Amino acid sequence: MKKRAFTRRGLLSGGGLLAAATLASCKQREFSCWDAGSLPAADLQARRAVEYLDRAADASRRCDACQHWQPGARDACGGCAVVRGPIHPLGTCRVFTKRA
Asked: Which domains does the chain carry?
């Protein structure tokens, strides 16, 4: 049986793999807060009227930066004081009002 010697290159490349795996596990879990089947028709119509989206095109207008935002559990849907139903922290709508 051949004995393997540890080299700096081998340790660094192994450490790089470990770091990449750790960062990948920290990535925010993908989820959706737009479940049309669980919302009453009036709530769905209201969400469409304010043009609610699960993902904001403009990061400065995300729901989690809005004064109406009501946080939920970490990596989960929250709520809104104006729009009914589950709200994605990365979402947006026309009634966005930047938190002071």
From this structure: 30-100 (4.10.490.10)
- Rounded CA gap, 62 and 21, in Å? 28
Strands 79-80 and 69-70, by their bridges, are antiparallel
pTM score: 0.67
User: 51 in the Ramachandran plot: left (φ > 0), alpha (ψ -120 to 50) or beta?
Assistant: left
Q: How far apart are CA 75 and CA 59, in angstroms?
A: 17
Helices (H), 8-83: 8-26, 41-49
Token pair listed for 66: 């809005």
Per residue in 56-78, pLDDT tens?
A: 999 999 999 999 999 998 889 99
* pLDDT tens per residue, range 5-60: 656 665 455 555 444 444 444 445 578 887 767 889 999 999 999 999 999 999 99
Is residue 56 within 8 A of residue 63, CB to CB? The reply is yes
